[in-house]
């Protein structure tokens, strides 16, 4: 059997230990707030929590309490003094796995009053890329701070390609015995590695120039989502979670909200083609500035905030007229060559001599050349945004068809940078379809240094991917909206905790995989595509192509 | 520069209750009448609209099944009584090519000519057969077009149909020997083909002609239907003629700009007869797309025929002689296109491809694979609300059509078709704009500006060990 390592609960010392205030040179002139890296329960904010299964209690129930007695998962509750058993908390039910045990409420019920079925509402949620299992698993991780139980698939979606076709060799029966816990992938004697000795941190400045080092504690940071596209609570929660994890969030294109000032050290200022809300001081106060050339959701098409969402506060920050649709043109009209591109980066470096510069590009066929060009133009980070991701409103045709998915772009760029001999002088960041901790690990094994996430954070806050974020009052679930009523559905504290928890759950899964691979650092995993295998439909292809 | 081509769209709502994707299910029993009812707070007022419909079936019919499945009501109901599920009627529409989501998207585009926009990234399968295994390119930093999407630079979508002589020939005295060019320029690389299966409606041919006129495109139809149209529409009509029609319909042949004959043993002769009646006429040959298409195109090209309409089956595949299906258009077209390039003839001939062109992206991808333009057969029907019952096989337009397509009014139908093609035009601009290409003529055969799954999969994952999918825990 495959050990479901993701469900191994890791006794990481994080839950109790307060992390020291991160020590780094700051470019901010604002008092920086400390956010504790504490893992606390942050349960679903809705009254009825969605589960994979639904338990129906018929009128035959005699409230004998047998189900309360047998269920190990807290599905059935009958508080002291109550005559009746409460409505089943069926989101806690693990389904058929339990039905085969002697702890099954269905089998044990003397009245045969209980029945179980798949929850139709849950089945109506999600899509092949984000299956309902992935959404539920992400909710579980955000609620508890730990990996989801095994009845929820939390590693892969159901898209039938890309990351969903890749797995680590240790997950495949063909390679059992290879790369198992304590094995040494570099050959030699097996090494047992303690979880607490594994490092998930990363330095982002690899150019060796005189600019300060920027260190992040997890190989994950938050993607750009502008004020206007998402609510201020969402933005602040992302920034606070980034602060807690000594990582980053990004302003997106829409200006730098004043309420982000206490987190300046963990914010990336984005300079995008529309230059909405970009000012010299917003470039000077941060440690990383990002140029957005293109975004994966709509590669080559620029940005678009629909008029409905351009409310007066949004318009004020973007220095635009409220109610008008705001287009961010494509491309930068000041950049039509790699030389122009260098001029752009030099401009930012001049305005802020102490920042790193990141270049966010999408994934055309010549993405490898773009990455090399960015390196020679002086970028510290090349951020590839694959075409299947993105959170913003985009034409459906662009989301599906334009530019290549990130799974293809990472190895293409990684191999090219290696061949050019500059791989170790630039940080390669991947985004656009990184849904799970396993996606992140696979992206790193394919050649990225770290990943950027967007949708995964939205899902952690309760997104069901109904895709209604772009128009009208915006997100019905209060995440991607600036509607004053809808925004109030989530509090900043709750949202912060959900994201801190999600990052912890991801980190626990990363540590478990690294331990299994015998690696002491996430940096050792980069480019180790030899540890992956491809799930093929052809049975005949079940042998190794190359080693 | 001539006036910029623009398709004027105008809202034209559906005629019938539309099948939506999600349905709300609720159980009245056990409701505690708590008055915190989440149904009242539905952001999209779905419950209110459905209640209104229950009282009066004529009220706002188009809002039925408009639930977006945000699940706010399901999760918020005090007693957890509500549920949402995917509408089985929705899932039953179309076939495995025309998926219900494609129908819904096409209907919405035909409503007002707008392109569908949504948030939260791509939602479908990673890739699929046929066109779903191609991604189009984008141009990152260095690109020739300054913002074609938002109108600051014009992106041309016009294409030429007809023989294109590669050079002019002159006599020793300097007199022009080449015959004058007979190019027919249309503004959209899509023309309106016959429906993919017989549909009984008197008005459909007129609707296609009217739509083609407004689109500055062309509409194909059998000669007898074309003859019944008012003469002012004929410039946009392509009659399909058979041997006996030609002499009987000399007036029609003289009035149109392009005509079509089915491929057969006497194709060149028929083409010659048509040309004799109307020297300016562009004659095209309609042929079934098959593995021998490239040979036949070469043969006919040698006989002076330069416009070919290659018809794939409804799912975009070759039709083999034994009735089986062959390769997808994308592969078959690359074959034909490649052969013509190799023989030095590609710029002389025009390739029109039809069959399986269901979405705007298929138009762009077929052109990338080597077509000059596409002909759309089923999408205009879907624009009118067609459910593509059983992939068209189950069509019974005479009696049981869910949208009563036989009774559709020609003007209304033309409006919906124009709206749909207007949305397709915008889609094409998006794809061209992302690539930094200024005109669709340059997209033809530009396989370098596309990413083919079979190539990229090998490049990215070719060095990974392969294991059978079935062996790994889902």
List keywords for this structure.
heterodimer, A: 547 residues, alpha/beta, Alpha-Beta Plaits, TIM Barrel, 2 domains, two-stranded antiparallel sheet, 17 strands, 27% helix, disordered N terminus, disordered C terminus, B: 474 residues, eight-stranded parallel beta sheet, 15 helices, globular
What is the spatial order of strands in the main beta sheet of chain B?
7-16-15-12-11-10-9-8
Q: Which fold name fills CATH's third level, the topology of the largest domain in chain B?
A: TIM Barrel
CATH architecture identity of the largest domain in chain B: Alpha-Beta Barrel
The Cα radius of gyration of chain A reads 24 Å
| Total beta strand runs of chain B | 18
From the alpha-carbon coordinates, what is the Rg of chain B to the nearest angstrom?
25 Å
The DSSP helix count of chain A reads 16
Count of distinct structural domains of chain B: 2
CATH homologous superfamily (4th level) name of the largest domain in chain B:
Aldolase class I
CATH class of the largest domain in chain B: Alpha Beta
Q: What is the architecture of the largest domain in chain A at the second tier of CATH?
A: Alpha-Beta Barrel
Oligomeric state of the chains in view? heterodimer
